Amino acid sequence: MVVLVTAIHDRGAAERHFFPSAVRHGRLLCMPDYRRNRVAGGTYFFTVNLLDRSSRLLVAHVDALREAVRDVRRRSPFHIDAWVVLPDHMHCIWTLPLDDVGYSGRWRAVKKLFSKAIPPTETRSPVRQQRDERGIWQRRFWEHTIRDEADYGGHMDYVHFNPVKHGLVELAADWPFWSFHRAVAHGLYPAIWNVGTIRECDRGERC
Questions:
Q1: What's this model's pTM, rounded to 2 decimal places?
Q2: 91-141 pLDDT, tens per residue?
């Protein structure tokens, strides 16, 4: 799918999402509790967080993460439209095969494979110790079903501006752990692209 990556995504008075190519002012209201939407062959935006939001585990072990994703895609294919890996969380856009709604199982597999690949140095709560669970990932993740090209473009902007938003780099192209350079190669962005600002997130679900 090739789109013009500039959009405003408006979900009504109760919730507004703003994206950098479109606007300069606004606020992002997050929804931590909701029923997951499943559309066969759909395109989805995800945010997946580490339990410790001060950790740098994902970039420190990015090769293990890449291998986990490759392994899951070999067994359960899906298309990666965009992906950014930050120290303590990641955002991505996937498109599933036709007649397939199984993104939750894929995320479980990615998390499990990554956890197995790195040493058990994290602090675990008594509950996680009792369940013999690693203390790496938040159990839930944010999912949004992409509705149309404008929605797709807005979320592409959000993914690709995120390292700049977090102050990790000054230019989007300077961040090494993501799909921005592939998007440039496909003509979706110019090589030097920094537009607008990213909104706040009250509860950290998408920040």
A1: 0.72
A2: 999 999 998 989 999 999 999 999 999 888 767 677 766 776 777 899 889
Element (H or E) spanning 47, and its range?
strand 43-49
Task: Return the DSSP state at 173.
Answer: G
Phi, psi values for residue 98, rounded to 5°: -55, 140
Segment 16-25, tens digit of pLDDT: 232 333 222 2
Written as six digits, the tokens of 82 are 């965009």
Q: Is the four-CA dihedral 87, 172, 24, 46 of positive or negative sign?
A: negative
Single-letter amino acid, residue 67: E
Encode 136-160: b = buried (16+ Cβ within 10 Å), e = exposed. Answer: bbbeebbbbebeeebbbbbbbbbbb
Contact 84, 92 (CB under 8 A): yes
d(CA 102, CA 118): 26
For residue 120, the tally of other CB atoms under 10 A from its CB is: 10
Count Cα atoms within 13 angstroms, Cβ side, for 127.
1
Which tokens go with 56?
């740098």
Please return the burial class of 122, using the count of CB atoms within 10 Å of its CB with bins 0-12, 13-18 and 19+. Answer: middle
Domains with residue ranges and CATH for the chain: 9-185 (3.30.70.1290)
Confirm if 28 and 17 have CB atoms less than 8 A apart: yes
Query: What's the rounded Cα separation, in Å, for the pair 21 and 39?
Result: 27
